[in-house]
Amino acid sequence: MEAKQAASAPWTRPTAVHVGPATGLIAQVLLLAALAGAIGLSGGHLSHAGWIVGISCGVVMNAALARGLSHYGSDGLSPADWVTLARGTLVGGVAALVADSLVQPVQVKTLVSLAALALVLDAIDGWVARRTRTAALGARFDGEVDALLILVLSVYVSRSAGAWVLAIGGARYAFGAGELSLPWMRASLPPRFWRKVVAATQGIVLTVAASGVLSPALTTAALIGALILLAESFGHDVLWLRRHRPGMHVLARAGAGPALDPPNGDTSDPSHGPVRRTIAIIFTVLAALVVWAILVAPDQPGLFTLGRFARLPLEGLVLVALALALPPRGRRILAVIVGTALTLLVVLKVINYQMFSLYDRPYDPLGDTSQLGNGIETLRSLVGGTETKLIEVGAIAGTIGLVVVLTLAMLRLTRVAGENRRWALRAVAGLGAVWALCWAFGAQLISHTPIASTLSASLVVDEVNALRADIHDRSVFAAQIRHDPQRNIPTNQLLTSLRGKDVLLVFVEAYGQQAVEGRSFSPEVDAALAEGDRRLASAGFSSRSGFLTSATYGGISWLAHSSLQAGLWVKNQDRYNQLISAKRFTLAEAFKRAGWRTVDDDPSNDRPWPQGKAFYHFDQIYNRYQVGYHGPTFTYASMPDQYIFSALQRLELSKANRKPLFAEVDTVSSHMPWNRIPVQVGWNQVGNGSIYNKIPMIHETGAFWSNPKRVQAAYGTSVVYALNTLTSFVQHYGNKNTVMIVLGDHQPLPIVSGTNSNHDVPISIIAHDPNVLKQIGSWGWNAGLKPSPNAPVWPMNAFRNKFLAAFDSHSTTP
């Protein structure tokens, strides 16, 4: 009966076959017309290239669909196929817009919206297919639409990210070329969920890259990560097809008759057995070594020696024991979780290593995380934009690679342990007993390095405790901020002994105790201080000096600035963020209330700084763009110290009929990396700074940072320049009303000051009026710019109260 109906109505089957493709082609034309209208509303039109590509995609896709329906003998499209067809139509629209972008600007929002909708429909047609049992046509159709979307998006993104992105879009078609040339690649692949995840990742990453919402560095890193995943997925499939190609398991001898099967029905090549076992053992050993090394690796530069790896990590034994207690699926889940956790552990140790290298302290999870952006900007100013992007991309790509490698290593170890359960249990028990004995007796192969290690677990615990301590510290610090008797000093009693004086608070970058005591460059610095004393004396100035303990070390100068100004111990970024959003009586505010004009001169700042007025109460803030500089930069330093002082003289100090000035001046010529240092010129030559384009700088090149002695020598040279410049400024422009407070903000980096150095910095007060120095006679500071080794050492946050007490006619603090 069915045969008769089919014979009497031959049009039924072809109509069912072609209704889907015909509908798809019509839908494609309508979408292109809608896009042309949408673009026309904004004054544009869909170019001929857009129409041609869009129509071509529709024709090719729907023709292939019609052929597929005939090939698979389908009577029509399944519900999932209709969803895929809608998605393919959207992809045709994306292709049209990408082609259009080659000849005219396009609406990126429209392109991204279509691509995002296609990605959403990808998830929907999969859901429908699973519930309607889509046939082979649906799976193939779905895959080809995925491939086309990835291709057109990669073409669009490659214009901004680079031609290498085309490798993402071309991967599927390269695989297809392999299928045409190599028969064994045409075999069906087994289902693999990871393949679907990778395909979805490509579309998502390319769509995000096309939107431009991420920075170029992050976009590039994400694309590299997507390409790595894609290479792994296709590589896995090609290797599987190669291993399972026809004849792979058949041994044949030329001219020896039919192939001979090995005994017991084993069709594999017996010569491959030992080789494979050897390779498997090597991979297992490598996986174990990688995991072990990560667990016992130190996180501080001074501890990173070969002997520190002679340890037995308890964490590794626990992981193997846990894997043995789980079923196979649980072991795989554990491997993925632990692989990710180990990656985070590596990242934490690398960050800690850098923090100790730069600031001689561990990573502060709450405060330091908020400074990631500032750190990247500082790195950009030090090494350049291109190099910084490469570092960012390398860091992100390396992290993604670590996740893959460590997950594979854990999968290998847990599988081997599961397959050799008895041996693994004995190994864990035996090593566990060794660990317990070493822990009980404190056994060590090298000093201060116990064999029984819980280093990684302790590091994580320490970070958690540090986070808890930071959170608790917020309430403690908030109470300290509120308690401020100095705020209640009557205005008419504030700074009475300094009335009429210009007070310059000068922070010399990285000017620490190491500069003046006990280092190879200290004699050079001490000679500059002695010359400064003679220069000041010739102009009628005197000085007194001591030491302050800075709240920071190696960098993050604003912690020192705020500690001194606010009279609080601002020891980390979280405290700083909390402080500047509150109210606190600063030195700048004290001078402002007492009638001074208050100014901040910070040439390293390249953006608006609202806290300068809101918290510090500066009347005027000068950044690098507001002082008229037309010379070159000196790595981090946007301009030489001499120009900073010259501009301050021109913009503020030389004005007639003005208020007395209080200015915080942050000089940066001695800021790391110390590889480009200016030279002094005559004060009448400084001008707008263009003179520095014509004179050579002290320039370190080559493997500068690999040679600590060169770095230390360059640091000493930069400090000498900074000190010579400020004393020359006082000699040249100072008068009877000039008072200068000169201090370092922190010690230099450990490569200069060594590990475990103190946080002390020199401080000096320079004045022409002897009554100014008389006011601080009880402080015990010595005469001259160089503090005596026995000079008093105060915490930096004590200076505000002592200073106000010395120069007020009344103070609540003795």
Characterization of this structure:
Helices cover 58% and strands 8% of the residues. The protein is α/β, with parallel strands linked by helices and 814 residues long. The strands form 4 sheets. Strands 5, 6, 7, 8, 9, 12, 13, 14 and 15 form a 9-stranded mixed beta sheet that branches. Helix 5 runs antiparallel to helix 6. The longest helix is centred in the middle third of the chain and has 35 residues, at 385-419. Mean pLDDT is 82; it is low at 1-17 and 249-272.
C-alpha geometry? globular
Provide a count of the helices.
Answer: 27
Based on CA atoms alone, the radius of gyration comes out at: 36 Å
Q: What structural class do helix, strand and pairing data support?
A: alpha/beta
Distance N terminus to C terminus?
Answer: 113 Å
Summarize the entry for a quick read:
By secondary structure, the chain is an alpha/beta fold. Mean pLDDT is 82; it is low at 1-17 and 249-272.
